[in-house]
Design a protein that fits this description.
The chain has no helices and eleven strands. The chain is mainly beta and 193 residues long.
Length: 193
């Protein structure tokens, strides 16, 4: 959760963000996969007057769902998903490929929305175009170190981050740090369990 009025270091999307991923193995190499990610935020409506008077609050959010398949033939893996951004009213695809051997993993992915839709308000759709390169290495049987670089093709700015993740006593945890970007955003630490 991030408050709507926060504008300090590491400010991101205001509101509450949640995601769910489910997969089912059809065979040792082939699995089907589905995911849903949403963000719910409250924003203040402007009265449209030059004075800038603020009107009542409105709840708004985003909802993106994806369904597809993944194939693994060690050490290689591939994934393809169809996406639907319900908030922007657009469809898209998400593809990924990777290599994984002896505790080392590297993955390249790309998510691309196609703007043949409109939002519920009739506005033109916001098209996402994001590529990611990520690599991780096991430091111990329970701890993994990762590095990722994202490129948002709409802004042209790369974003990089470092993570330390693992599992201990039945709890999954992740500690991450998003590096400062050339666009002026400051570094941001993340902790999740």
């Amino acid at each position: 959760y991030e408050g709507g009025g926060y504008a300090g270091p590491g400010a991101g999307s205001p509101g509450t963000t949640a995601s769910v991923v489910a997969s089912y193995a059809l065979s040792p190499q082939f699995r089907v996969k589905a995911s849903v990610q949403g963000n719910l935020a409250e924003r203040t409506l402007s009265d449209g007057v030059v004075s800038g008077n603020q009107g009542p609050a409105e709840t708004a959010g985003t909802l993106v769902a994806a369904v597809g398949a993944a194939y693994v033939n060690a050490p290689w893996k591939a994934e393809a998903l169809l996406r639907r951004n319900f908030s922007a009213g657009v469809f898209g695809v998400q593809v990924a490929g990777g290599y994984s051997v002896k505790g080392f993993d590297v993955t390249v992915s790309h998510a691309q929305d196609f703007g043949f839709g409109q939002s519920a308000a009739g506005q033109s759709a916001a098209v996402q175009s994001l590529s990611t390169l990520s690599a991780s290495v096991l430091l111990s049987p329970e701890v993994k170190f990762g590095l990722s670089v994202n490129r948002d093709w709409n802004t042209g700015r790369p974003l990089a981050g470092l993570t330390l993740s693992g599992s201990r006593a039945g709890v999954n945890y992740l500690v991450g740090y998003d590096l400062p970007s050339e666009g002026g955003s400051l570094g941001r630490a993340r902790l999740s369990a």
